[in-house]
Amino acid sequence: MSGRTGSIWVDPAPLEVSRPRLPWWTLLPRWVKVVLFPVFLACVLSWVAYQVGRLVWRYPLTLGTALLAGWVDLKLGHWGLGYVVLGVVVSLVVWWWLHRPSFRRIAVPQARTEYRRFSVYAYQWRTVTRLSELTKDKRGREYRPKLGRVRSDGWRDRVRVRMVKGQAPEQWELHASGLAHSFKANSCRVRVRKPGHLELDFVHGDPLARPIPVPSLAVDESKVDLKRVPIGRAENGKLWRLRLLGTHVLNVGVSGAGKGSLLWSVVWALAPLIRSGAVRLLGIDPKGGMELGQAPEVFHKVVFDNELAAVGLLEELAAEVKERATRYRGRLRAWHPGTGDPFLLLIVDELADVIAYQTDKQLRERASRAVQTITSQGRAPGVCVLGLLQDPRKEIISFRHLFSTRIAMRLDEKTQVDMVLGDGVRERGAAAHEISENTPGVAWVKEDGRREPVRARAFHVTDIDLDELVEYVTGAAPHRADVLPFRVQDNEGGAAA
After folding, report:
1. For residue 262, which of 473, 457, 447 has the smallest C-alpha distance?
2. φ, ψ for residue 103 (rounded to 5)?
């Protein structure tokens, strides 16, 4: 029937078998194979040496311990190896008992790093990257990101990754939450090391959970650098240093976020320069002095409202900026201590009360113009503005871009993070809206010119510290009002203390 025209039956298709493909080198002549054999052998040995070197580099403690244990077992036997192991364990326990800080600093990190690299990351890397859609397939070949060096700091793991060609850091930022859950971390932050290479921070704990007491007041004013003012500690254990010279600082956070801790930490660090007159503080506290009124003696001028006196102080400072710029023209590009002029730091405790919430439209416009003049022209003449506020919306402060350093403390909404720190910073891990209410002073810091934000916590400045600060700056002990208990009525109508 298959031969008839118009039949619905057709011959079955012939059996199709793909022809086996032989490696190209099998087609070479015999004499060419003989000549290339030493080259091929050298390549194989180099590859093996490279793989062994990688293992030694990544697991030096594990391999070294294994080789040493094998050598001891060969020389001393099983009982000898047992005695050596017992002696090492006892030595480590004694070391841990006598000096735990050095033990945790020297002995623990490498062992913890090798364990976590093998058991957590290397073991699951292929599966996690596939399920996270971070691999690519091309002509049946899978291209997978390369897992590089791992370093465990206890509270976080730093994992280096070489991306697949064609990938962008933004793709990893989109999958950061999934990666954190896959590797059982609280969060994952993506940082760019160099083109094509990333470093993932898998965070497991919070080293900033406890308040950080202020250090001792500096004695030598020459040690105070206005470009690196220590005001707290970063989560990596280093000092949090804030730049004041050549920048303006905007600190945003809800009520109770710890803005006062940052404010007084700055003043505390500048105390030697304030005492000598090299730095002058100007302050505006529209809340009636509830914050700056704790130590008004350290300020050159301070105003406790948002009315005419506050606007007058702002306009006076704006005029000083223009006057200095006129004097420096043709002589200096930027202020330095040799000019003889003091460095001026304006602290506004609630900036929105001055430039947005003021009911008098004329005063509000005058204040806004003066602040914009200071922030746009004051960096070179040696003037810095430290503005603190709670609402970062554009209609409240439309010139956020004039503040080169922006600090986000605890915020209400995740959209506010981008308002304060800039677009895309939240995707890189700056979750200021997730800061706990129990950690006032914790903040995310973003400086212009630096892609990655920094998480830090300001020093905790108490009322006793403020009394010490006032006495250090003025040379006289502060006078505080005594708080007397209320007199209460007894049951018979008489007064009782």
Report:
1. 457
2. -65, -45
Q: What is the pLDDT of residues 22-42, one digit of tens each?
A: 777 777 888 888 888 888 899
Q: Which two tokens stand for residue 256?
A: 């109770």
Euclidean distance between CA atoms 125 and 123, whole angstroms = 6
Q: Do β-strands 343-348 and 239-242 pair in parallel, antiparallel, or remain unpaired?
A: unpaired
CA-CA distance, 114 to 108, in Å (whole number)? Answer: 10
Where does residue 392 rank: exposed (0-12), middle (13-18), buried (19+ CB within 10 A)?
Answer: buried
- What pLDDT score does 242 carry? 94
pLDDT tens digits for range 438-477 = 999 999 999 988 888 999 999 999 989 999 999 999 888 7
Q: Which residues contact 206 (CB under 8 A, 6 or more apart)?
A: 155, 235, 439
* Statement: the pTM of the whole predicted model exceeds 0.90: no
List helix spans (H) across 99-159.
100-102, 108-116, 125-131
The full set of domains in the chain, from first to last, is: 62-98 (no CATH), 113-203 (3.30.980.40), 221-474 (3.40.50.300)
At 164, list the tokens.
């697949």
* Backbone torsions φ then ψ of 206, nearest 5 degrees: -125, 105
Confidence of residue 430 (pLDDT cuts 50, 70, 90): confident
